[in-house]
Amino acid sequence: MSGYNWNWPILLKEPYFGWIVSGFGSTCAIALLAWAIAFPLGSVIGIARTVDNRIVRGIATAYVDVFRNIPLLVQMFLWYFVVPELLPKDLGSWVKRDMPYPQLSTAIVCLGLYTASRVAEQVRSGLESIPRGQRYAGMAMGLNGFQVYRYVLIPVAYRIVIPPLTSEFLGVFKNSSLALTIGVLELTSQARQIEEYTFASFEAFTVATVLYCLVTLLVILLMRIVEGRTRLLGAITAGG
Amino acid sequence: MGGFDFDVIARGAPFIWGGMLLTLELTALAVTGGLLLGIVIALLRLSPLKPVSWLAAFYVNFLRSMPLILVIFWFYTLVPKMIGSSISGFQSVLIAFVLFEAAYYSEIIRAGIASVRAGQISAAMALGLTRLQAMRYVILPQAIRNMIPVLLTQSIIMLQDTSLVYVVGLRDFLTTAEIVANRDNRPIELYTMVAVVFLVVCFSLSRLVGRLRRKYSL
Amino acid sequence: MIELKNVDKWYGTFHVLDNCTMSIAKGEVVVICGPSGSGKSTLIKCVNGLEPFQKGIITVDGVSVGARETNLPKLRSRIGMVFQNFELFPHMTAAQNIVLAQQKVLGRDQAAADTKALALLDRMGLADHAAKYPAQLSGGQQQRVAIARALAMDPIAMLFDEPTSALDPEMISEVLDVMVALAEEGMTMAVVTHEMGFAHKVANRVVFMDQGAIVEDADKDAFFGTPRSERARLFLSKILRH
Prior knowledge:
The complex is a heterotrimer.
Chain A: H1 16-48, H2 54-68, H3 72-86, H4 89-98, H5 102-128, H6 132-140, H7 145-175, H8 187-198, H9 201-230
Helix pairs in contact in A: 1-5, 1-7, 1-8, 2-5, 3-4, 3-5, 5-7, 6-7, 7-9, 8-9
Chain B: H1 6-45, H2 50-64, H3 68-83, H4 89-114, H5 118-126, H6 131-161, H7 173-184, H8 187-216
Helix pairs in contact in B: 1-2, 1-4, 1-7, 2-4, 3-4, 4-6, 5-6, 6-8, 7-8
Chain C: E1 2-11, E2 14-24, E3 29-33, H1 40-47, E4 55-60, E5 63-64, H2 72-77, E6 79-82, H3 94-104, H4 110-123, H5 139-151, E7 157-161, H6 169-184, E8 189-192, H7 196-202, E9 205-210, E10 213-219, H8 220-225, H9 230-240
Parallel strand pairs in C: 3-8, 3-9, 6-7, 7-8
Antiparallel strand pairs in C: 1-2, 1-4, 4-5, 9-10
């Protein structure tokens, strides 16, 4: 690295400091809003994969298979370049011309639907890891199918899936960086832009790296607290 | 836009096939390199020397908190500056993938070893085997069986991840298709084709992994 | 009260239940035994419709279990069931386990359900454990909570699926004592178990199953005196030898 001109202060100068702040803001916005889609939708799909009805189960399985087997970047292009063309004319032209924050919205929807398939897999495996007798016990006391899920299976499943869901939640932050390919100025993209304007590549990428690591640490800490609050007294593996 | 034009795909096919070859080559090399490095890191993490295992843990957690795109940018722009001479885009991207995927592979390997019940090592040592022998003859055979499906699944994800080289303009499957899409103004046909090809390939591979898992499950 | 007529069940091509016919009258205690894999657990799970069956008729208190129009949750709420692995819900305290279905199925209010739960826990000798989670209780205590949970629904009959086989030996009697007391109060019971001491003490009849079929269905004294089938004799000699 000899001859490299270190220039850390440049990160605090405008417009670069503003770029970093707004990039980080976009990254968080995309991640949180995508999660707001992914968590409820993924939960429903994950639950649907465990019900007895074959048609419901088939649809849920197809959803997961499709969204998990196409690269996220390709999905991003599909949503941005292809889907608006396939929509009914009025809707399509609204999406192309009048939809607010077109790139940002597309990225959020795309990432949300993709992450839903991953959340669904975690929820499904959480539900499947519960011994079958628990379902029987709920049914034997007269609970109907919905009640068995509501009171018996889901409360336990969510405690089991908190750790894997933490890593999916972190994934949503990391994957939000793909939004740069359709022109969203999120954190990675802003770091790239600073690098191009100032040639301070090391500094620009370092600040992005540090911010991603901070998010990770923060989320892990938060989830530990959640986990501690909801911990079962080690009972899930008993019996079986 | 007119109907779906298959002809545009046919005309672009030879060029895009070149991109596909790059994608496959990158995947194969990155899987191999990532696995080898992943094994080393997993062993370091299991080392009884605390600083060594901490260092390995730091490496894994650090890389796992980064987006792959950022890692690609790091290596694409910085490696040439650091070593003072230019290396090809393919080489820098390959290094990024190997280092990045190794973090994920090492976690899978570590979890595979940890998944073998502690009683197994006690039982092996009670028979008079050394710790190393117990590892070699009792723990690893079980661990490998547990982790192979997960390693394969991770490799399918890696195949999908290679599409990210698009951001540095490397001409892989997706990028070549994008070039044709722009040239002929046919994004619908080409992006749909790319999606379908990935879907068919990755879906078939994951089905295969699923069958393997059922066949060899203990 | 419980009638099974020519019940058949297959898992794929495997014949789990082979033309099973039996009945349990009101107030009767029937012990079902047999080697593992003989279909006795499956049989008892068919009685409240937890396992579907392909042929034959099962009625409980005149209601057909297999009929499409039958409201299974309602029927199940009238039959108590106790499982081999207790199956208490791990995220609820002992009392909450007993309250849940009283509220959600029977529509009892919180106060009534709580009172009932505490009274039953007291009867099981577990009054001090109401606020504990399953993982804080021993196996025997968990199984007694599970029995209380079933009794809270005021069932017309109780089904026991190997209720003591997951328990450490020193805890078996605390569960059996509760079951004996129930039998003596006149509860209608079907009990899958290998505890022949229990059968001796309170059973009216013993049903012996092998390979999915009911091989023997006899009065307790006849069964322990001179079982008619060779297989039942062999089974008895194996489990009574020690």
